[in-house]
Amino acid sequence: MPAEKSIYDPNPAISQNAYISSFEEYQKFYQESLDNPAEFWSRVAKQFHWETPADPEKFLKYNFNISKGPISIKWMEGASTNLCYNLLDRNVRNGLGDQIAYYWEGNHPDDYSRGLTYRKLLEEVCRFANVLKDHGIRKGDRVSIYMPMILELPIAMLACARIGAVHSIVFAGFSPDSLAERMFDCKAKLLITADGAWRGEKPLYLKEMGHSVKKCIVVSHLKRVTPCPLDHVEEEIPWTDDRDYWWHEEMEDKEPACYPEWMDAEDPLFMLYTSGSTGKPKGVLHTTAGYLLYAATTFKIVFDYKPGDIYWCTADVGWITGHTYVVYGPLANGATSVIFEGTPFFPGNDRYWSVIDKYKVTQFYTAPTAIRALMKFGEGPVLKHNLSGLKVLGSVGEPINPEAWLWYYKYIGKEQCSIVDTFWQTETGGHVITPLPGATPMKPGSASSPFFGVKPTLLDECGIEIKGEGEGYLVFSQPWPGNDAPLYNNHETFRGHLLLQVPQASTALARVSHEVWTAFHCDFKRARRDADGYLWITGRVDDMLNVSGHLMSTAEVESVLTEHPRVAESAVVSRPHPVKGECLYCFITPNENEVFDQKLISDLKKMVRERIGPFAMPDVIQNAPGLPKTRSGKIMRRVLRKIAVNDRNVGDTSTLADEQIVEQLFANRPVEA
Ligand code: WT7
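# WT7 complex -> structure
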């Protein structure tokens, strides 16, 4: 390991050619973006096609002051466009028709490779848009998508965007129950799915329809016309005539052209469920114009993407990272990307490095949890491959610990690449705090500085702004184009949630509610600004869990656990985990006269897996004859977090209704924990 320096300058070879080549240049543009956002973003908008141009007077209208009316943000009101047109037709017209939009790398290295040019992608999207139209899908209808990482996934998304249907993707790692809940919530008219996916050596069946769906289009991926080394799946999948349709049969006779639906700037583009503070997932809505501007600009600048570069983001399209940085951002820039179906460990632990070598990847974007998992195998698997094409290495999903940062920097980037530790979330649409490759001197573990248009503000417990150095609640005091639509995010409801959930923040919020939009509605953040002005995300103040970059709420898991007939009550906390970042530690109070046994533990694990998904699988389930509650009945989670790590410094417990319970819970820790 190299000795940890506190700051790493960007490689001059990167700075020289970068869009933003010095920190001074970044600061100049940044200031402009805050002083005159309308002017700044209207320059960005010029590269895109607007069927109805924006009125410069109305480029940005917003109100953050509740006393003056409802909170609202409107970008480019009155303008109209179509995302799919801008991503595909515009690029084909600009001469990129024969350029590869996506390379597809299957789970098995010997699977057939597929590349789709921009022209071919446009044709496929139009054909599928016609399929959707034939099934009665119209502008504004919601379409759910539950698919593996195959090319039909972006094709389905873009076909929705082309006809103005709102896609709602559910990550294929979620259980059928989770899918059903989300489909019901958004009143989806149709589901697009596949027979299954490949994960390493085993097929994963997706089409086990316990849920009610009116119509379903199914990609035949496990059983393929084209042979594949693992193509031995003979099992019949569940099928209902007049409801289920094969993708390839539907596509057969469709025209490869479809006129785009012109959408208003603030018309919905997609929704995506994320974990709210309650047990129920929350549908975040992103709209048309602002999202296009922000996805396109962050992609181009943060990854310093230049024509000829090959970009690879390992995130599943089912998460916001995949929406913005596998689909919308790259295609808006006419980029060439890799889409990978498999895992980093199959057929060997060098798969990521072999894919980077195979496609000569220049920008690689992954999660700290993957880096930590791969670090374990040392440098050997890395040295088997030529990674010299790499220029920018991205990190996303959780704070990257300095050890993982340094490993990434030294062994993957060979100390020549810039690392961009991109902080953002589903609601922000794109990166909000991030270094820029040619411009920002890097500090391992710091997300560094705000992107253009983003104005982070730190507040102390009394709601007073902390200027300069200090730590406090992170809020945003100006809108940027990637902001989610307040329409579905009723501001007052969120403030209500926050106040309940984060009592420490209540004073702060009460003071500032009329001035500051807290973008972190539910997943409220704290951050520290150091002496150099760098921002460090220090943690959450609420009850959220982040397992391998998958965000979920404690309530979501608890509601599944307490459904078990033998369980009276449960409390879930996160415990640090060397690879996953955090893991789930669950406290279970069985019903009167019920025993806590191995069967209950395995039942509960199975339930969580089935109801939420494999990634939510608890690491520890502990018997808790009682939970540490305050006199008002609130579970003191900070005490449970201490018990989970066996740390006796639990702090003040004098407000607990029964202090004895803490000792009892320490005594009850299972041996394997
Ligand atoms: C939460 C948002 C945004 C893409 C993936 C997840 C955590 C994400 C970082 C980072 C520190 C990070 C935060 C955030 N997070 N990136 N670079 N440094 N924390 O989207 O599911 O909406 O989760 O992920 O906790 O609030 P999401």
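# post-check
The first helix runs from residue 12 to 17.
Residues 274, 319-321, 396-399, 421-426, 447, 523, 525, 537, 540, 546, 551 surround WT7 (CB under 6 Å).
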